[in-house]
């Protein structure tokens, strides 16, 4: 795996993050779906598992630095049944995390994951397999950039009795009631 290939993979991911931050229309409002915190965690675990699989194949010395990965890495490099399981399980987690997204995007990611698996286990040339990996990274970057809305973080705002009573006289409400000019108050509804 060449340095330019790795740089191009990193550039695709960086570009996706930059586009997401800069373009306010993303994610696309009509097609985007909310991802729960649990789905984000499952997807993250799946991506980490796929990264471990890929690193075990191409960066053996780096993976060897992680404690407890010697046997896992050897199983993955053997390209046997355990290697297939070490690929399919994280790939399934990624698809599980994206299950509520637009069906076309889920199909695109599934097709890309399948192409990576087929080129890996069916004896395709290395450049074909690397192309499939690049296309999968591109697909997951496009889907997450354009269609995935992040989990909502809910914050509970607590108000004290003193802040409610001190603000009620000036028409500013920090609590449950709003004081009006007429002297009446009603429940505040956001």
Give the N-terminus to C-terminus distance in angstroms.
55 Å
Element order, helices and strands? HEHHHHHHEHEE
Strand content: 5-15%
| Poorly predicted sequence stretches spanning 5 or more consecutive residues | 172-186
Shape estimate: globular
Quick check: average pLDDT?
Answer: 85
Rg over alpha carbons: 24 Å
Q: Count the E strands.
A: 4
Main sheet overview: 2 strands, parallel
Number of helices: 8
Helix fraction, binned, reads 55-70%
List the helices and strands and how they pair.
Blueprint: H1 3-22, E1 33-34, H2 37-58, H3 60-64, H4 70-77, H5 81-97, H6 103-121, H7 126-146, E2 148-149, H8 161-168, E3 177-179, E4 185-187
Parallel strand pairs: 1-2
Antiparallel strand pairs: 3-4
Helix pairs in contact: 1-7, 2-4, 2-5, 5-6, 6-7
Task: Name its key features.
4 strands; globular; two-stranded parallel sheet; 5% strand; two-stranded antiparallel sheet; mainly alpha; 190 residues
Overview in brief:
By secondary structure, the chain is mainly alpha-helical.
Describe, in plain words, how this protein is organized in 3D:
The protein is mainly alpha-helical and 190 residues long. A hairpin with a 5-residue loop joins β3 and β4. The protein has 8 helices and 4 strands. The chain is globular. Helices cover 63% and strands 5% of the residues. The strands form 2 sheets. A two-stranded parallel sheet has the order 1-2. Mean pLDDT is 85; it is low at 172-186.
């Amino acid at each position: 795996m060449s340095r330019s290939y790795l740089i191009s993979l990193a550039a695709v991911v960086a570009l996706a993050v930059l586009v997401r931050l800069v373009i306010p229309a993303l994610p696309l409002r009509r097609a985007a779906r909310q991802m729960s915190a649990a789905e984000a965690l499952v997807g993250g675990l799946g991506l980490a598992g796929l990264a471990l699989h890929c690193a075990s194949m191409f960066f053996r010395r780096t993976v060897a630095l992680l404690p407890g990965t010697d046997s896992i890495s050897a199983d993955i490099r053997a390209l046997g049944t355990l290697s297939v399981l070490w690929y399919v399980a994280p790939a399934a987690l990624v698809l599980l995390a994206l299950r509520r997204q637009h069906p076309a995007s889920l199909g695109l990611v599934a097709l890309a994951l399948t192409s990576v698996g087929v080129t890996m286990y069916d004896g395709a040339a290395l450049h074909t397999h690397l192309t499939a990996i690049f296309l999968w990274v591109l697909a997951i970057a496009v889907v997450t950039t354009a269609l995935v809305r992040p989990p909502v973080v809910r914050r509970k705002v607590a108000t004290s009795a003193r802040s409610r009573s001190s603000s009620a006289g000036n028409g500013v409400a920090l609590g449950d009631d709003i004081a009006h000019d007429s002297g009446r108050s009603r429940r505040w509804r956001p």
